[in-house]
Amino acid sequence: MKKAIVIVIGAALLAAGCGGGDGDGDGGSAAVEPTAAAPGSTAPQTPGETGGTGQNVPEALRFKGETLDGEPFDGATLAGKPVVFWFWAPWCPKCIAEGPDVAKAAEKYGDRVSFVGIGGLEKDAGRLQGFVSRTSSKGLTHLDDRTGDLYAHFDVAAQSSFVFMAPDGTTSRASGPLGAAELGRHVDELLG
């Protein structure tokens, strides 16, 4: 069932607008192991479950993955702080265009908001790394989602997409491309 969902999401991503590339989602070494259903704004936390920060961990942050550098990543480490998840693919022109603005926003808000790039639906890890270099977004944490598991976990069906998550786990979403002003508006709303 899960593989079928990933395949459907992959097909939807290709049809949804960025097109091109070979982001067929059947690649690689992603070590993503979602541990909860897709996030929602209802009942975002399970009492008593805490992350490394001692904060309650919203359901959406209960996943494990791997960075593009091959390091393990636990979503629970993001608990207690607002998070901007940016879903991109290296063959997506909208993603490439907005990458520098996302990097600037991460630099501007980085002390108050965590920014996490999720590079997905691409079987070649080198293309994921190339995207990060080309978009000057090396300052962000980027997760390897070549399998599409995180896209499915967050119920994302198109790139470029953003999920803005408050510390309590409530979310809002936006589709890109988001320019600097619009991205800043969303982050300001997230901060209240």
Q: In the residues, how many domains can be counted?
A: 1
Average pLDDT taken over every residue: 79
Query: What is the class in the CATH system?
Result: Alpha Beta
- Percent in helix: 25-40%
The value of Rg in angstroms is 15 Å
Spell the H/E element sequence. HEEEEEEHEHEHEEH
Overall, the morphology is globular
By helix and strand content, what is the structural category?
A: alpha+beta
CATH homologous superfamily title: Glutaredoxin
| Cα-to-Cα separation, first versus last residue | 38 Å
Strand content: 15-25%
Individual helix count: 5
- CATH architecture descriptor name: 3-Layer(aba) Sandwich
The biggest beta sheet reads: 5 strands, mixed
Kindly report the CATH topology.
Glutaredoxin
Domain Thioredoxin: 32-192
InterPro entries: Redoxin, Thioredoxin-like_sf, Thioredoxin_domain, Thioredoxin_ResA/DsbE_sf
Region (Disordered): 23-57
Protein name: Redoxin family protein
Descriptive report:
The protein has helices at 2-15, 93-109, 125-134, 149-153, 180-191, and strands at residues 33-34, 45-50, 56-58, 63-66, 72-74, 83-88, 114-120, 141-145, 161-165, 171-175. By secondary structure, the protein is of the alpha+beta class. It has a single domain, classed as Glutaredoxin (3-Layer(aba) Sandwich). It has a 5-stranded mixed sheet. It has a 3-stranded antiparallel sheet with strand order 1-4-5. It has a two-stranded antiparallel ribbon with strand order 2-3. Strand 6 (83-88), helix 2 (93-109) and strand 7 form a beta-alpha-beta unit. Helix 2 packs across helix 5 (180-191). The model is unreliable at 1-17 and 19-53 (pLDDT under 50).
